[in-house]
Amino acid sequence: MDPEEYRRAAYASVDYIVDYYKTITERQVVSDVEPGYLRQLLPTEMPQEPESWDDIHKDFDSHIVPGLTHWQSPNFLAFFPGNTSFPSILGELYSAAFSAPAFNWICSPAVTELETIVLDWLAKQMGLPSEFLSDTEGGGVIQGSASEAVVTTMVAARDRYLRDAIASKYSTEEEKEAAIAAARGKLVAFASDQTHSSTQKAALIAGVKFIAIKTYPEDNYALTGAALTKAFKEAEDKGLLPFFLTASLGTTAICAIDKFVEIGEATKDYPHTWKHIDAAYSGAALICPEFQHYLAGVEYFDSFDMNMHKWLLVNFDASCLYVRKRKYLTDALSITPSYLRNAASDSGLVIDYRDWQIPLGRRFRSLKIWFVMRTYGAKGMQEHVRKTLGIGMHFTKLIQAHPDVFSIATPPRFGLTVFQVVPSRPEETANEVTKKVANRINNEKVLFLTASTVDGKECIRVVTGSPWATDKAMSEAFEYILTVSEEERQN
Ligand code: PLP
Description:
Layout: H1 3-22, H2 37-41, H3 53-64, H4 86-97, H5 109-126, E1 139-143, H6 146-166, H7 173-184, E2 187-192, H8 198-206, E3 209-213, H9 225-237, E4 241-248, H10 260-266, E5 274-278, E6 303-307, H11 308-311, E7 319-323, H12 326-333, H13 343-347, H14 366-400, E8 406-413, E9 416-421, H15 430-444, E10 450-454, E11 457-462, H16 471-490
Parallel strand pairs: 2-3, 2-4, 4-5, 5-6
Antiparallel strand pairs: 1-7, 6-7, 8-9, 9-11, 10-11
Helix pairs in contact: 4-14, 5-14, 6-8, 6-12, 9-10, 14-16, 15-16
The structure holds pyridoxal-5'-phosphate.
């Protein structure tokens, strides 16, 4: 493709994208394709001869697009949102154009410096403590995902714990090494049983144990200080070493919020235990001052992570990880062979984000964040959050207005409604009818929602954070859910 061919193709792609968004509400949210559909449509070998863009785009339109799930559709009510926006798409375009695995500052100074600036802007806008800003000992770094963020912090936490809590008790290198080797198998990471599975996966990757602490409906499924104290004590009685904890601001299934202040108090005697806040979805709400009270207790925590790529108008990937002391990341993750050395890095005046993450190379992700921040401004982003929260609340109220058909399962939060269908026949349980309704809705593909089990209860989760969502679309979604539920209650 030569530059002029690119120009024509790119203009046409922009038209295609605009038309896509103009028709997004009319598109069936979930694809009809069957597993393996694409193998039947594409050749078994890669093309040997160059092909024209027209031919490629035709196949893209006829083979690829029909296999897409339309996450930006107002009928996408599953999981958590995966927003994008036009300025974010433009950021990706330029990022791809200037493609560079910018691991060190010198690899593209603007890539590093813009990242530091936008992450500081975001931290201030969310009301994070100043210790998480880059002009202190802390700072932010963009990770690919919240899962990557928790693995990264867990590796730093393991390193810190083994050095500061274990090795520091000994004087000779030999003793230190023996103590570290003995401690490794006893390290345990904790989280509540509502916490996203990424913490358990991180423990798996880091080669440490994982303990899920049970939560209860009377605490709204929050991890409490008392439960944490008990869990730590029980682990220590077995000789285990609690070195890491994830607390959540908005868990995946139900948006539970752990008790940060209680957790902070309960872990005061564990100065070497790393405390991480996973605010992957709900953290976006913190850009509005009225939600910043949820940060109470954050001063006890070592790290905080929020995905702009969920609810905050920036497309995947943009997981914003903040640490109180960046030294712990760089201590654990910095290895500098001669070919990565350079005068700028040696000067100590620059950040090399490769030392704050697991991979070496990194994308220019801050550009799309900067474009979004400037295009919307804090006010526009707040408006988006408040508007989608309002739409979520609108849905909650519709559910609550039909107590004969629906019951709310957990407190509605951050636009998420978790509910069950009330059975109408004595021989059917709420779990059974709820499952039937969820299955039928997802099979019919008018809407896409998530069925999840909360404490043994089969529930339906509905959430939207799409910039394309409206009260009207949500009312229509509700009417459809109501019709299906009423029919299934009789069947
Ligand atoms: N934490 C929470 C609360 C989540 O809801 C999710 C995903 O939905 C994650 C972590 C994992 O996010 P990611 O896909 O960025 O790894």
